[in-house]
Design goal:
heterodimer; A: four-stranded parallel beta sheet; three-stranded parallel beta sheet; B: alpha+beta; binds iron/sulfur cluster; binds FE2/S2 (inorganic) cluster
Chain lengths: ~475, ~80
């Protein structure tokens, strides 16, 4: 899987530009120029014309400022006004994704189409096999009558020339819970009652039409107001940028953060509590328990598989434990979770101890805006080194391995759900009846958090880096020196 | 030499770190792939866009696995 494409690079470029301007305190003055600079008049446009390109960029910038595109009341409101509003706001809703309608709407409804490869053959197996009689012939070629077609795909399988193609709507195709659908204008709409914030649609959209609402302005405002900034680094960060965790920690101080915690630290507590809870539940006669650290999964259960709820662990996530500790040590600080995904962004909105989210991507853009290169940053020595197993939370299988190691008096057999797609959803739905092994680890993303929607590195490379970070770390069962 | 500087990494260089895996087997012995901290080109005006790669002293901008394979083959022919 390739994790980069142009839509992603445009987003990262916009993030970098916004952060550069914020660093110079010129955001309000210069933001309206960004679309013009990115799409100058004399260069070829990607869409129909340069103006359309610029309009799309404007809305993407609006999302980066933290606004819902749907909240726009006046199209003429300049971005500078939004900047002012962003600096003035004190709270944001828990809707983390927004659809840039200007960029979307280009996909047609999912359908089967006959391409020009059709030879109008004599056999015409497409006609013979269509159960709905939806295929017509004119001008010597087959045509599908979309009013009659039920998208069964039989014709595609039958055509010996491979002349029939399937045209998916990429975001709808990947959404495991059918939460994203076209509205009456043909623009995608995310139904908050169904969405689990996994971010798969954002990654899938080839137009980059789905954006995360960023907290960047809010983080900068807190900094300007003189509040201390605390960064909580999700375990998956150890695999990003090909760098090591000590340099990454150090870079956060360079960016202006006062305190840095690895969330793997909180993962140690999650491991111990989860193991104890599993033991207790099995002893009480429950056949199995599932993890709860992935908010994409807990939302899935909440919204789509209520029957599974009694089996989900009540142990708080590593982020929660780490944030709690950070809050106790720095009660007045602004606590920022550095995140691999939009599901965690949602969790941040609901956790009592965290304030804002900074995605891996935004962090990368911040480094670039400040012209910092992780390779040349001095690594930070000392500090707390979390256990190897806790660092392992970043990859699929990590939680199960850790719990297995710590659990006493029970034999843990695990089932891993490595990424939620429609098949995994069916498997999960069947679990209350069809008991799996006694411990089920569920990660919404394939490969685990190193495959989250905000990651930078290819998950394979990231997995290697995580392994390295684990080698440098003590064993979870070793006595820890308290520092 | 593939830039592993943070700027290039973020703008698509992350993928290039796997370049050696894409090299056809018969070319592997003839090419040395190394990583590098920031090559220093990303912040100069007019040098193009990241990610950057240096192949025998040539600077390739907006490198992709495919464009690099082309360049490597060209260089080997010369
Ligand atoms: S974030 Fe996930 S659940 Fe929500 S609409 Fe997108 S793909 Fe569907
Ligand atoms: S697996 Fe990790 S990255 Fe993916 S949604 Fe869950 S918490 Fe986020
Ligand atoms: S980061 Fe690649 S040239 Fe600077």
């Amino acid at each position: 899987m390739s994790v980069t494409n142009n839509a992603m690079i445009i987003r990262r470029d916009l993030l970098t530009r916004i952060i550069k301007l914020m660093e110079k305190e010129e955001l309000e003055k210069k933001i309206d120029r960004i679309p013009l600079e990115v799409r100058p008049r004399n260069e070829a446009s990607v869409r129909c014309c340069v103006h359309k390109d610029r309009a799309v960029l404007k809305y993407k910038l609006m999302a980066i400022l933290g606004f819902n595109i749907g909240d726009e009341t006046d199209e003429l409101t300049p971005l500078s006004d939004y900047v002012r509003m962003a600096y003035e706001r004190r709270s944001q809703s828990d809707v983390v994704l927004t659809v840039v309608d200007e960029a979307c709407s280009s996909c047609r409804q999912t359908s089967y189409e006959v391409s020009n490869l059709c030879r109008g053959c004599v056999a015409r197996p497409c006609i013979n096999n269509c159960p709905k009689d939806a295929i017509r012939f004119f001008n010597g070629q087959a045509h599908i009558d979309h009013k009659a077609c039920v998208n069964c795909g039989k014709c595609l399988k039958m055509c010996p020339f491979h002349a029939i193609v399937y045209m998916p709507v990429p975001c709808e195709e990947v959404c495991p819970v059918n939460a994203i659908k076209k509205n009456d204008k043909g623009v995608e709409y995310i139904d908050p009652a169904k969405c689990i914030n996994c971010g798969k649609c954002m990654v899938a959209c080839p137009f980059g039409a789905i954006m995360e609402k960023s907290n960047l302005v809010d983080i900068f405002r807190n900094k300007i107001e003189g509040r201390e900034l605390v960064a909580l680094l999700a375990p998956a960060i150890a695999g990003q940028f090909g760098s090591d965790i000590q340099r990454i920690r150090s870079s956060f101080h360079r960016l202006g953060f006062d305190h840095v915690y690895e969330v793997a630290e909180g993962a140690e507590q999650t491991i111990h509590h989860e193991a104890a809870e599993l033991k207790e539940r099995l002893e009480e006669g429950q056949p199995f328990m599932t993890t709860s650290c992935c908010p994409g999964y807990t939302s899935l259960v909440e919204k789509h598989i209520p029957a599974l709820k009694p089996f989900v662990s009540h142990t708080p996530s590593p982020m929660h434990y780490t944030a709690k500790k950070a809050r106790e040590e720095h009660p007045e600080a602004c606590i920022v979770f550095v995140s691999p995904c939009s599901a965690k962004r949602w969790e941040v909105c609901h956790d009592p101890y965290t304030d804002y989210t900074l995605s891996f991507e935004e962090y990368g853009a911040w480094l670039v805006a400040r012209q910092l290169d992780l390779n040349t940053i001095e690594p930070l020595e000392g500090g707390y080194t979390p256990a190897a197993e806790a660092r392992g939370f970043a990859a699929s299988g990590g939680v199960a391995t850790a719990v297995k190691k710590v659990a006493e008096g029970v034999t843990v057999n695990e089932t891993l759900i490595n990424g939620i797609d429609k098949a995994a959803l069916r498997q999960l739905k069947g679990m209350p009846q069809n008991h799996p092994h006694n411990f089920v680890e569920v990660m919404t993303c394939e490969n685990g958090c190193i495959g989250g929607c905000n990651v930078i590195s290819n998950p394979r490379l990231a997995a290697r880096k995580i392994q390295e970070a684990m080698k440098d770390a003590p064993d979870i069962l070793a006595e820890k020196e308290v520092c | 030499m593939i830039c592993a500087g943070t700027h290039c990494y973020l703008m698509g260089g992350a993928e290039l770190q796997l370049f050696h895996e894409y090299l056809p087997v018969h070319l592997r012995d003839h090419v040395m792939v190394t990583g590098s901290p920031c090559l220093g080109v990303c912040d100069c005006e007019g040098s193009g866009k990241p990610p950057f790669v240096m192949v025998n002293g040539r600077t390739i901008e907006q490198a992709t696995i495919q464009s690099l394979l082309e360049v490597v083959k060209e260089e080997l022919e010369n």
